[in-house]
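Data availability excerpt. The first of two example chains:
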Amino acid sequence: MESFFSTPLSSLEDFITEHGFTKVHAQTIYTQIYKHGAKSFEEISGLPQKLYSLLEKKYCFDFLEIAKIQESVDDKTVKLLFKLSDGRTVETVCVPFQKKYTLCLSSQVGCAMKCSFCFTGTQGLTRSLEKKEIILQYIQAYAYIKEKFEGHQAAPNIVFMGQGEPLHNIDNVADAIEILKTTEGMGLGPRQITLSTAGYLPGIKRFSELGSVNFALSFHSPFNEERNELIPLNKAYPIADLIEELKSIKLMKRQFLTFEYLIIRDLNHTRKHVEEIGRLLKDMPVIFNLIPFNEFPGAPYKRPEMAAVEEFKAGLMELGFHAMIRTTKGDDILAACGQLTSQETLS
């Protein structure tokens, strides 16, 4: 049997019309499952009886097991540990904002990039996620939020900033995004989806395949020597090569390239860094998301003082850049940026 959550609407329409039914039935099914949360074909009323039988023989609803749930006592951030069919696990984080949640989705079990500031990087890469495993993180996390938190019924935004390098799994990520953007399904717009990369250049060259979603680069230093330490991938794809490729990304009106900048105590936030950023990124449509380092067990770095973060922000703004400081959420449950790992979470 095929997983329903691996099936684009066009394939469902083809299957249904081949058996003498109309595309409207396929669209109804998609809407009921994705928008209204039906968990089986039986929960969808009004379909021809013969169609129910055909669908149940063709498709299965292979939901993921939620193995563990943690909720922050500080800010209602929720971390879900999903157990996959092969026993592997991944973490998904539900981050609260004023009007709705944003879901931080994982794209791989572990990660091959070995970034020194990231807990996920310590566990290495096991495998990439299938498109259904990406989609089901969203579907099931959204269902949990709707049931648990009154007033958070709107479809959450997505940030691909969980475990893994999403552009290292671009085919499955692209397929998952396409299904989640389907009007009859979740109907997410491209600006509701942000993909963050450590700078995986082969994937950046294919970024247009993702359909105008927001782009974020894990930047962290304008100097190759420092960035090599923080992101070993930089040795293969250095800063100048990345910037040259980013200039070719076509942006929509009022859309920016987000540069995520992890600020680490006594490392990457001097005036020299500000000046080099100004030289490298002059006239580029960039917005900086400044992230005070979130410590994790065994972390080689320390969190900076907020005064240093504010000073760095002021320096960037003096050069004409947009800059904001990301509010830390979920650090009490190791759910903040750079703190995810599923290696030992079940033990």
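And the second chain:
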Amino acid sequence: MSEHGTETSRSTESVIAAQRALLLTEFGKHVGRGDPYAIIDFPDHGNVGDSAIYLGELSVLRELTGRDPSYVASLARFDAAALRRAAPTGPIFLHGGGNFGDVWPRHQQFREKMARIFTDRRLVQAPQSIQFQDDTAIQQCVDSFGAHPDFHLMVRDRHSVTFAQERLGLSPTLVPDAAFGIGLLPRPATPTHDVVMLLRTDKEKVNLDATLLQSIPNAREADWRAESPKSRTWQRRFANARAIATGALTKSKRQVSVYNYLANQRFDRGARVLSDGRKVITDRLHGHIMCTLLDIPHVYLDNSYGKIGRYADAWTKGLGIARQATSAPQAVDLLNQVGN
């Protein structure tokens, strides 16, 4: 990928196609036609980026195997015995993303627990970014995965490759974010604003001069919308009824169907938010990635620890429809350079 840094205007189609092809190659090292598999740590929450990752994982694995997963579960609904019944053989894929480390500890503790429980199975960590802050957490990770006889780690950026090798004693593979497995998409809606500003409100946000961004004319400010408990309940009930109506009679098959439906609904919601702007400013990695999939001109700022910049350096640098900014004033200036 060293050539990426020398290109100045790469087409959206070529960027997506290259990353999807590599995902098929790397995931294809673990499954083939007809093979059973499981996906765990399903992102059952309102963060659209995680749903994009899941749908990309699913698209790639379906293409390789010709089938749906035998078992899917979120962190909260995971049942080891149910996994073994539904998928007694085949690899177990740990959902990818940006939570390998101690920034989001519940997910890290879950995957380390899986490494201790499933020592008899191949565990494949789908592409992640690594970020640790505490030496004790690093040692716990080393102890958990170092002892597993068949653990395979994919990471999304070179910083994570180096960290995994030097601090975790692991041998990772550099692989694109799994959301690129979805492929190029049409905008689902016609823009009603000149600019959508998709900006983080969680602990990965950076302090920006919001006043300047808020002064952009005909702009809409947004973030991935949190789901209310009532909305989640009704969505799940509808998805369950839909699964039964389409023939998913066992609990494991219903669960796969429900999660696929929820991920698609969340992704579609996020795609409509982004498509509402002729252009986008974002500090979310999957704001950048989904804008690329939707061919939307955009400017991206980094998150609190450099996750987006690290990804862009490895995979999307030189993309014609995107520019990276380091401040709000620069983001506004660069907005005029994309999509004209």
